[in-house]
Amino acid sequence: MKFIFDLDGTITRQETLPLMAARFGIEDQIDALTEETIRGNIPFIESFIRRVGILGQYPVSEMNRLLSGMELFQGVVGFIQENPDDCIIATGNLGPWIEGLCARLGCGVRCSDANIADDRVAKLTSILRKEDVVREWKAKGETVVFVGDGNNDAEAMREADISIATGMVHWPARSVLDVADYAVFDESALLRLLAQLRASTPSRGSNTLVLSCAGMGSRLGLNSTKALMNFEDRPFVQWQMQGFSGIEDVRVVVGFQAKDVILAVTAVRPDAVFVFNHDYFSTGTGCSLYLGARHANEYVIAWDGDLMVHHEDLAACLDHDGEYLGVSEAVTEDAVFAHLDPTGHSIVGFSREDPGAYEWSGPARLRRDDVADVRGSVFEGLLHRLPLPALKVRAFDIDTVADYHYAKENFRSYIGGK
Q1: Which H, E and C letters describe the chain, residue by residue?
Q2: Which of 23-32, 33-42, 188-197 has the lowest mean pLDDT?
Q3: Is residue 258, in this structure, part of any structural domain at all?
Q4: Domain holding 36: CATH number?
Q5: Which of 65, 140, 165, 380 has a beta carbon 3.0–4.6 Å from 180's, enabling a disulfide?
Q6: CATH number for the domain including 395?
Q7: What's the pTM?
């Protein structure tokens, strides 16, 4: 596996371009060029050539000294230095400008280049296409992970086997989020994800909580994903995060209103990892769970963004040893009924037509490698594995208007506190 990192905002704690512009008092020129590029009025290649034309008038040695002292994400640098043969920096920056900075990283670097004369850029000789670096390593049979945040990373991320958008310095470019598999907004989240990707086998006995929030909530009629339902002036997902404070590895699968969900979650849990279900319109929670479970820890705790679990039952759900499927007394309007064996300890079937005393509400704890790739609901991916242990909890999901009113009426008793 090869890890290819963008430089600006992914490894550095600030962008190189504004720093260079500020040093020589040309912020207005560079800002205007950047703005026109972001708006799509100037193609990226042309913008880069013009940028080099402006900055190339200043001493290369001074640029190198300036960038050599940039503050870095030291945890990311540590990962690179622990795996130097499998890490590569791919940056559009000119090699002569970043030579000192890259010497601090300890791995291979691919960059744009130029001829230098009298300590100035004389001629731009090459412009790096990051996607070419990805293709090169894939052609050698490598699984390629690309980590980046800017518009010029989008094609490389599209080509990569696994792509991670970073928002540790600024919000990732729209083009990047449109193709990313994951997004992280905190260095610890990125390091945790990199370690999981790097590991040949998952950490034994460890949990990843996968919260599925990609759906449109169409049956509820709120024109909003259910994770953003308002309860006591807070989005529901923030109340859920409150209950997950003891879980280190939390993943949130997003699709519809992804940015709004990400902002709501990171306000209270900045170290969450976000997983994209780009096909949310035509897939269900089963697909979201599968995507969230990839590269996770040994066990996945499956949780839906509309699931309300009684606060006294949370610990039983989160600390349970071994696999289970959560069932509760049937109370919702559009229930999936769970049929238990005579002992009441195992689920032997699911049905929408054959009523029973219990319904499948979630949550569940499953081995990561047993999570099925299905396009529909989670329970459809579990049918071939039945029987599975049942865990009886007080819980319900919010699918219809009647469920929503029931949730409003019972919210405080379920969530606990005052």
Answers
A1: CEEEECCCCCCECCCHHHHHHHHCCCHHHHHHHHHHHHCCCCCHHHHHHHHHHHHCCCCHHHHHHHHHCCCECHHHHHHHHHCHHHEEEEEEEEHHHHHHHHHCCCCEEEEEEEEEECCEEEEEEECCCHHHHHHHHHHCCCCEEEEECCHHHHHHHHHCCEEEEECCCCCCCHHHHCCCCEEECCHHHHHHHHHHHHCCCCCCCCEEEEEEECCCCCCCCCCCCHHHCEECCEEHHHHHHHHCCCCCCEEEEEECEHHHHHHHHHCCCCCCEEEECCCCCCCCHHHHHHHHHCCCCCEEEEEECCEEECHHHHHHHHCCCCCEEEEEECCCCCCCEEEECCCCCEEEEEECCCCCCEEEEEEEEEEHHHCCCCCCCHHHHCHHHCCEEEEECCEEECCCHHHHHHHHHHHHHHHCCC
A2: 33-42
A3: yes
A4: 3.40.50.1000
A5: 165
A6: 3.90.550.10
A7: 0.94
